[in-house]
Design goal:
With 139 residues, this protein is α+β, with helices and mostly antiparallel strands. Helix content is 19%, strand content 37%. The strands form two sheets. Strands 1-2-4-3 form a four-stranded antiparallel beta sheet, with helices on one face. A two-stranded antiparallel ribbon has the order 5-6. Strand 5 and strand 6 form a beta hairpin. The protein is elongated and about 55 Å long. The model has no long low-confidence stretch (mean pLDDT 77).
Length: 139
């Protein structure tokens, strides 16, 4: 590879990192009670389609019915309940250099009776195991 093409490659990698770094913000807070019940709070900001509330990142839904559909999958879904949900549309002015002009800020809180019930509610691949008084969470 020539020196020039190597620099072009580095430039494109740099630009790609800049674009992806502004794609979405995600935060989750897991609270576990003594009896292994608890709450999962999830908050994120995602880009949306222009003039729509639909998320451009499919695994981070913006609408309450989409979130409920995700939570109501699986064997233990009846023991998971959505306790709080807020949605806020964010429109960024044209003067801002951001790639995505329309975003959504989503927050919801889920209550569960047993920690193993939230494996499908958390983002990514999650495995939860209890052994005596020890809890193992693998992500």
């Amino acid at each position: 590879m020539s020196h020039f093409s190597g620099q072009i490659f580095k430039f494109f990698v740099f630009v790609l990192i800049l674009l992806l770094s502004n794609c979405f913000d995600y935060e989750e807070t897991l609270t576990i009670n003594y009896d292994f019940s608890g709450t999962l709070e999830i908050a994120y900001v995602v880009p949306t389609r222009r003039n729509s509330d639909e998320s451009l990142i499919k695994f981070l839904p913006t609408q309450k019915d989409e979130i409920l559909g995700r939570l109501n999958k699986g064997f233990f879904s009846r023991n998971i309940s959505l306790k709080d949900y807020t949605y806020q549309k964010i429109v960024i002015p044209e003067t801002d250099p951001s790639l995505f002009r329309e975003k959504a800020k989503v927050y919801y809180k889920v209550e569960f009776q047993d920690l193993s019930q939230i494996e499908d509610a958390m983002l990514g691949k999650v495995q939860v195991r209890k052994k005596g008084n020890t809890l193992y969470v693998k992500r």
